[in-house]
Amino acid sequence: MKQVADENMIRNAVGDEEVEKMLIPPYTEANKNHPLWPKVQAALRDVYDPEIPVNIYELGLIYKVDIRRENNNVFVEMTLTSPGCPVAGEMPGMIENAIKTVQGIGQVEVMIVWDPPWDPSKMAETAKLQLNMF
Q1: Residue 93, domain CATH
Q2: Domain limits at 114?
Q3: pTM summary value
Q4: How are the residues of the chain apportioned to helix, strand and coil, as percentages rounded to the nearest 5?
Q5: Which of 133, 134, 132 is nearest to 4 (CA)?
Q6: N or C: which end of the chain has fewer CB within 10 A?
Q7: Alpha-carbon distances, residue 12 vs 7, 15, 59, 107, 134 (angstroms)
Q8: How many domains is the chain built from?
Q9: CA distance 49 to 47
Q10: pLDDT per residue over 32-84, tens digit each?
Q11: Which helix (H) or strand (E) holds 130?
Q12: Closest C-alpha among 95, 34, 35 to residue 63
């Protein structure tokens, strides 16, 4: 699938403040007050589904990110677009490796869940625009 818009195009169209709201998937749960959250979020946005030109965070594949205050260990609960995803075995390692690049992070655990199943409603608005799904 070809990407039809990128973040800069969207920023130019709606402005920086609106894009910041549009970048957040509606169903992702995270302890956003943790000081490392912005860096973890950025690391997640660097991981792309190999078959879809959108990062896994904005696709809504990340359901939960729990960064422990006492040791900065991170637990991630995620899903995939389908159970038959060809990178199902690799994706947790890709996520773990991306988060481990954040300085100060402890151990990282990534778990794939299938409930609730992923559907396009879980995508951030920016992802929908990038995929021409608005």
Answers
A1: 3.30.300.130
A2: 27-122
A3: 0.84
A4: 30, 15, 55
A5: 132
A6: C
A7: 9, 6, 21, 38, 18
A8: 1
A9: 7
A10: 899 999 999 999 999 998 888 889 999 999 999 999 999 999 999 999 988 88
A11: helix 125-130
A12: 95
